[in-house]
Design goal:
heterotrimer, A mainly alpha (123), B mainly alpha (508), C mainly alpha (496), B: 508 residues, mainly alpha, two-stranded antiparallel sheet, 20 helices, 2% strand, globular, C: 496 residues, 3 strands, 73% helix
Chain lengths: 123, 508, 496
């Protein structure tokens, strides 16, 4: 029991990831697949943020500048995963943009966004 | 200036891609010229980096002067030098080919993207190149993710510019599956970070041995392998490849098959050997056995599906699946000879597969024919292109005096040295399957008379009207394929580099 | 054995190599000039090869390392009696067949003649390369080039029959090479750490008897060009080729490259001592006996002349292997001499078949009754060629079969002697009726070929060529040099 509660961030992100994965694989509508992809990627971003958190820590901004007092790392949330995730969010958004561009082209070419109808047209 | 060459090789195509895009706002149509210049510069820089490594040994470059592991490190050693030169060469020669293939009046891609689309095409092409170089150079795991995604996004979009309707769906599927792969990779980077606090490859290699029995690190490894296997189209995670590579414009297929999947395999090599040392992957995990099976299945499976293809580009694409198996086989053999064979195969496959796709592109440009059975008698009408294809096919089969033979030799001798006898028949069976499906094409092209066509063709030009393609379409593949012969004979040149790289990887 | 370093072997190969671009550039517009290149190349090649005769007969070996692929793998040449015998035979007969080709191809107005002559040149280059190879990798390279370059020749007519036949040809040869030959070479390299040919073999003591047997079996299966059953079907299938191709390549270059390679491997990779220790020589001898008898029996049942000749070749090739497998001085001498004797004899026979085809359009023996009256020169040459293959005096084949018989006695293998005699009897059984019917048979009435009186021979060049090789067979009976001397050297150096 303790195992589940202490690592609840893992459980949350895994559930989100699986929801996203199911949407990507199980849904036939292409827009839903993209939504699934987004959820999938967001869950991973969530995970990274969750590992940066510390108990009782504040946001990673040093108020008094350098040289006044030593910076104690345990006061601040770990900024590195946040930074990495900014990049990952950018990647996610670009992927989203490309995917949407694909969807527009697909709609123009096939007239539908349902995967089975598209495959039927290709037979 | 020269000390910044390591980053310049990545930045040059990156900046010029922005520049090309801005150029589109003016009336000047020089995007192709700048692409060629950019890739040429990158190739020259890559060569100089390789020479420097060969003379003075591996060296590092720190981005922004920040020392690793806090800063991002770019590392040039034998492996990255070899890969860099290979990829830069293929990208450069292919960009020359683009002059006619994309901008020519008969270009199928131009029908899709229009004249304005050319700018975007070359912009994306340069971004793809920059991404590839970045993956090769970087020694930081997250930086690798960034460049992996730059490469992949450009690739997804470029696949979508293919001529057939299905190319868009293929691009979309590639996007979905590729993004899953990248996300799995990202997740594993997160796991590694949370355990060790660092993202630098060399630093991780030092810190990880403490945690080899940790389940987290094991899962991280599994996620890493899964993610990169998707990117590299290792059987059975290859389903996106026949569609994507088969439907993309030929020039993009050649970069994808020749460079992108290989760079993903390179990333996997880095992950396996530089981050997790051989001690982990071969002693803690039974990876030799697992990978041998995966490689064998990939080699035989890939070649078998290729046999069943009627479309020539899909056939070449399925062949790529099999060829990635060769690389994994060398890893599974896990001694110096075997790994040397794998690294030699990086060079061999890139050069040969790229030239095969470019030759096929020339065929499609001239005849609009994709179907193998309708390529009868093409040998007489397009002799240069078909000679290029023939030499490439001989290289893939592994006829002596080609780089393909050198790879097979090293893999087989390596397997025998390691006592893994059953792997030798796998290599031979794969060679024979290659001989069958390439031989079929060669037989039709050279020795079947084209007056007995099955039924009248609608939209294709009259057989009599087909002529040899423009030099810009015939010379680049010829150059690439002749390199496979030159280095099949003077094999000690790439082999000595590959050997040093292999011992470096295995030595830890 | 003394070794001299000289570039002569390279010059032998350069002659056909230089001819290739010249033939290509000259093309079909000036056929006489184009054919001149071929003849010139063949003559230069023969002279260059023959120039090494004094050295090699004197007991020296000519070596030359061409290039290094990578450490451990060189392309190198080593001219010794065995190699020189093959090279001299092949290059001499190339001259003859080139004249025959000119007569044949022009009489039938064949298409794609430029491609034909180019591929011929490459094939001869490859054959000489095989002859002069100094190690297994060099021989592999040239062996594969031979397969690749002869494929366009086999599929020359490009109709569906030719495509099917050529496909079988190619798949058997390349398939056996990749599946069996290649692993045998890998294993040899692993155990012997070298691929160079050497007099006593390189595998002595390198591996367990079981492993040596396995490697040996892989080599025997892998050298498809030696047409040992069950990997022989490519040879009859290749008869779809134009007759000059069948003549030179499938009586001389390709098939002899096969038995040559196998002999090379038996004598210079395994070595006589190792093989007799393990009893592998005897096993090989009995194994090919089956081919000898079976091929002769199948030949009896063929009505198509070229197919009968093809199966005859299958049998005769195994004679050569039988001789070598005896591992005795006379046996090896006999087998190696037969490379040359059979070449002259069989090439005559094939050229006659082609001559008959041009003059009368006939392919089947049943249609050739009484043809000797219309084509006396051709059929006389056929008779002489048949004598040589059967092994009767005054034809050269008698010499090699004599030595083979002596070799069997020397090695104490009486059953093999019986095999030899039986198969010679069978050879007579399938050749003599052809000759008899040709001269003494009655043509069917209404057969328009026989309507007008007088001789209607094949084209002049063709008949001259086959007359030359028939005459050569007789000359070789009386003066079998330099072949017997070369073969004798091989035997004395390697045999026990």
């Amino acid at each position: 029991m303790e195992y589940i509660i202490s690592k609840y961030n893992y459980w949350v992100y895994i559930m989100l990831m699986m929801i996203g994965f199911y949407a990507m694989m199980g849904k036939r509508n292409l827009v839903k697949k993209i939504v699934g992809l987004n959820i999938f990627q967001t869950s991973i971003i969530l995970y990274f943020i969750s590992i940066a958190a510390k108990k009782g820590a504040s946001i990673p901004i040093v108020f008094h500048g350098h040289g006044h007092e030593p910076v104690r790392a345990f006061h601040y949330v770990n900024p590195l995963p946040h930074v990495l995730m900014l990049t990952a969010i950018v990647v996610m958004v670009s992927t989203f943009g490309v995917a949407l561009a694909f969807i527009i082209r697909i709609y123009r070419t096939y007239g539908t966004l349902e995967e089975d109808e598209i495959l039927a047209q290709e037979e | 200036m020269t000390e910044h060459l390591s980053i310049l090789v990545v930045i040059t195509p990156l900046f010029i891609s922005f520049f090309v895009f801005l150029l589109s706002l003016t009336k000047y149509r020089y995007e192709w010229h700048f692409t060629v210049i950019a890739t040429c510069l990158s190739f020259l820089i890559a060569l100089s980096l390789l020479f420097r490594v060969l003379q003075t040994g591996p060296f590092s470059y720190r981005l922004g002067g920040w020392a690793p592991p806090w800063g991002i490190e770019y590392r040039v050693d034998y492996l990255s030098g070899l890969m860099l030169v290979t990829v830069a060469l293929v990208v450069f020669i292919t960009s020359v080919y683009a002059g006619k293939s994309i901008r020519g009046s008969g270009s199928l891609t131009r029908e899709i993207i229009g004249e304005e689309g050319e700018v975007s095409f070359f912009t994306l092409y340069l971004l793809l190149a920059a991404g590839l170089f970045g993956i090769i150079m970087t020694a930081d795991l997250f930086n690798l993710y960034v460049f992996l995604e730059i490469t992949s996004l450009s690739a997804y979009a470029l696949v979508g510019t293919g001529y057939k309707k299905r190319a868009i769906v293929a691009g979309f599927n590639y996007l979905i599956l590729g993004s899953i792969g990248a996300c799995l990779y990202l997740l594993s980077v997160g796991y590694l970070y949370i355990m060790t606090g660092t993202l630098n490859m060399a630093d991780l290699a030092q810190k990880l041995p403490l945690f080899y029995d940790s389940r987290l690190i094991l899962v991280a490894f599994a996620l890493l392998m899964a993610g990169l296997s998707i990117k590299m189209a290792l059987f059975p995670l290859h389903a996106w490849l026949p569609d994507a590579h088969g439907l993309a414009p030929s020039i993009i297929s050649s970069i994808l098959s020749g460079c992108v999947i290989e760079v993903a395999a390179y990333a996997m090599l880095r992950a396996m050997f530089t981050v997790y040392t051989p001690a982990f992957i071969f002693e803690v995990l039974p990876l030799k056995e697992v990978l041998s099976i995966a490689a064998a299945v990939a080699m035989i499976g890939g070649s078998t599906i290729a046999l069943a293809q009627k479309d020539i580009k899909r056939m070449l694409a399925c062949s790529s699946v099999g060829q990635m198996g060769y690389i994994v086989l060398g890893i599974a053999i896990a001694n110096q000879t075997g790994l040397t064979g794998s690294l030699m195969h990086f060079f061999s496959h890139a050069v040969i597969k790229a030239s095969l796709f470019l030759a096929v592109g020339a065929i499609i440009y001239q005849t609009r024919i994709y179907d193998i059975t309708r390529l009868r008698g093409l040998g007489k009408k397009m002799p240069v292109t078909m000679t290029t294809f023939t030499i490439g096919a001989l290289g893939m089969i592994g006829i002596p005096l080609t780089t393909g033979f050198v790879t097979e030799w090293k893999l087989a001798i390596g397997a025998l040295e390691a006592g893994r006898w059953p792997l030798v028949p796998v290599i031979l069976l794969s060679a024979m399957l290659n001989a069958v499906y390439f031989g079929r094409v060669l037989e039709i092209v050279w020795f079947k008379k084209d007056d007995d066509q099955p039924h009248g063709s609608g939209e294709t030009p009259e057989p009599a009207a087909v002529t040899e393609a423009h030099p810009l379409l015939t010379i680049p593949p010829l150059i690439l394929v002749s390199l496979s012969i030159v280095f099949g004979i003077a094999a000690f040149v790439p082999l000595s580099i590959a050997k040093k790289a292999a011992s470096m990887l295995l030595g830890g | 054995m003394e070794a001299t370093n000289s570039m002569t072997p390279v010059f032998v190969l350069l002659a056909p190599l230089a001819a290739i671009p010249l033939i290509a550039v000259t093309g079909g517009k000036r056929p006489n000039l184009r054919e001149t290149w071929t003849i010139l190349a063949a003559v230069i090649m023969f002279l260059a090869a023959a120039s090494m005769l004094p050295q090699v007969l004197g007991g020296k070996v000519v070596e030359y390392r061409l290039l290094t692929l990578f450490p451990g793998l060189d392309i190198k040449f080593r001219v010794d009696p065995l190699g020189l015998l093959f090279a001299v035979t092949a290059s001499f007969l190339w001259i003859v067949v080139s004249f025959y080709s000119i007569g044949y191809m022009r009489a039938l107005d064949e298409h794609a003649q430029t491609r034909y002559y180019i591929c011929f040149a490459i094939a001869l280059l490859a054959a000489a390369g095989v002859a002069f190879s100094g190690n297994l990798i060099t021989i592999l390279v040239f062996y594969e080039v031979l397969t690749l370059s002869t494929y366009p020749l086999v599929v020359h007519h490009e109709d569906s029959e030719a495509v099917k036949g050529a496909r079988r040809y190619f798949s058997y040869l390349l398939g056996t090479s990749i599946a069996f030959n290649l692993p045998a070479i890998f294993l040899t390299y692993k155990f012997a750490q070298t691929l160079d040919f050497s007099n006593g073999g390189i595998l002595t003591g390198a591996a367990s008897p079981l492993m040596i047997t396995v490697i040996f079996a892989l080599f025997v299966a892998g050298i498809g060009k030696a047409a040992i059953m069950p990997f022989h079907s490519w040879l009859p299938a290749a008869m779809v080729a134009p007759t000059p191709v069948s003549a030179l390549l499938h009586a001389v270059a390709v098939v002899k490259a096969g038995v040559f390679t196998l002999s090379r491997i038996v004598l210079y990779v395994f070595g006589v001592d190792l093989l007799s220790e393990l009893g592998l020589g005897i096993m090989l001898g009995y194994f090919v006996s089956f081919t000898i008898i079976a091929a002769s029996v199948i030949a009896l049942r063929q009505d198509n002349l070229k197919l009968r000749l093809a199966y005859s070749t299958v049998g005769q090739l195994s004679y050569i292997i039988l001789g070598v497998s005896l591992l005795s001085l006379k046996g090896i001498t006999g087998g190696i001499t037969h490379i040359a004797m059979h070449a002259f004899g069989k090439i005559t026979l094939f050229m006659c078949a082609g001559s008959i085809l041009i003059a009368s359009g006939r392919k089947n023996i049943s249609e050739m009754k009484g043809i000797g009256k219309k084509m006396p020169f051709t059929m006389l040459a056929f008779f002489i060629g048949a004598l040589s293959v059967i092994g009767l005096p005054p034809a050269g084949g008698f010499i090699s079969k004599w030595y083979l018989a002596l070799g069997c006695i020397e090695a104490g293998q009486m059953p093999l002697l019986v095999v030899l005699l039986l198969s010679s009897f069978l050879n007579a059984a399938y050749f003599m009726p052809v000759v008899y019917q040709a001269f003494f048979g009655k043509p069917d009435s209404g057969d328009h070929f026989y309507r007008d009186d007088g001789i209607q021979e094949g084209p002049v060049l063709a008949v001259a060529a086959l007359g030359l090789t028939a005459g050569g067979s007789i000359v070789l009976f009386f003066y079998p040099q330099p072949f017997l001397a070369l073969a004798g050297l091989v035997g004395s150096l390697t045999g026990r």
